[in-house]
Design brief:
Elements: H1 6-28, E1 34-36, E2 39-41, H2 48-57, E3 63-66, H3 83-91, E4 95-98, E5 104-109, E6 115-119, E7 129-131, H4 133-151, E8 158-159, H5 168-177, E9 180-181, H6 201-211, E10 220-221, H7 232-245, E11 248-250
Parallel strand pairs: 1-11, 2-3, 2-10, 3-4, 8-9
Antiparallel strand pairs: 5-6, 6-7
Helix pairs in contact: 2-7, 4-5, 6-7
Length: 262
């Protein structure tokens, strides 16, 4: 019988121990047992690059809702100057929906199944206009058409009304146009548009980290004019880390989408 040398025994023991540690590490890796859906509306795009950087570093996918909003650079978020930004997000596997082309706010229901809306941008900015189903459908679809011009990629068939302001009539208009309306959960309101003196980033981070529940949709912006202390650099990455620690993975909208990220 061949005798095993002392050095060989040491090497074998070391290999076995390494294997045990490796298996232990795999066994201790938390599997996501809950799902959350990160979403971002365009806003003024001032933290757009920072958001993209954080999502990429954390290997997390999100859903972006696009309107042609004025940005911190003085251009608009669907101008050619933002083409590369949107192309890169497509390559990374994110999803995209319409936020209405001119960031058109619902005001109230009108007669004959119509709705009164007020565009924030565009040639009719600030005017209250009566939209029928065809006009509302055109407003939603314009984003899809423009996004395809920029990226050769269509939107998912989803949309979000600015401010989350809707009525059953407005939701039905979107449905008839083939776009599902996506709101957000109360706990998913991440507060990036709130006054930063009254709602500091530390408070927003703690609240979201604690209250977000399985299946919740969140909402923040790629930049907000009204907030003095920018939300994304201070809150977003730590929020993602905290949610991962609670066993969350990150899904894409609509909710039947595949390829959630951890």
């Amino acid at each position: 019988m061949k005798r095993i040398s002392h050095k060989a025994l040491i090497r074998t023991a070391a290999a076995l121990m390494l294997g045990c540690f490796s298996l232990g590490a795999i066994a201790q890796t938390p599997e996501c047992s809950k799902k959350v859906y990160l979403t971002f509306d365009t806003g003024n795009m001032s933290v757009a690059e920072k958001v993209a950087e954080i999502l990429k570093r954390q290997n997390v996918k999100a859903t972006f809702f696009l309107a042609n909003e004025k940005t911190f650079r003085g251009d608009f978020s669907l101008d050619d100057s933002w083409k590369t930004y949107w192309q890169e997000r497509v390559k990374e596997g994110h999803h995209f929906g319409s936020h209405t082309y001119d960031h058109t706010y619902f005001v109230k229901d009108g007669p004959k199944g119509e709705v009164f809306e007020k565009p924030q941008f565009g040639p009719k900015a600030g005017m209250m206009i009566l939209y029928n189903e065809a006009a509302m459908c055109k407003e939603i679809r314009r984003v899809d058409q423009r996004f395809q011009e920029l990226t050769d990629h269509p939107l998912q068939k989803i949309w979000r009304a600015p401010g989350g302001k809707t009525s059953p009539t407005l939701i039905r208009m979107g449905d008839m146009c083939g776009y599902q309306h996506i709101g957000w959960a109360p706990a998913g309101f991440l507060g990036d548009e709130l006054n930063s003196d009254k709602h500091p980033n530390s408070s927003l981070l703690d609240k979201a980290s604690r209250n977000i529940a399985d299946g919740d949709i969140t909402m923040a912006h790629l930049g907000i004019w009204s907030r003095k202390d920018p939300w994304a650099p201070a809150v977003l990455e730590q929020l993602i880390v905290n949610l991962k620690g609670r066993g969350f993975c990150f899904g894409l909208l609509p909710k039947n989408s595949v390829n959630p990220s951890k």
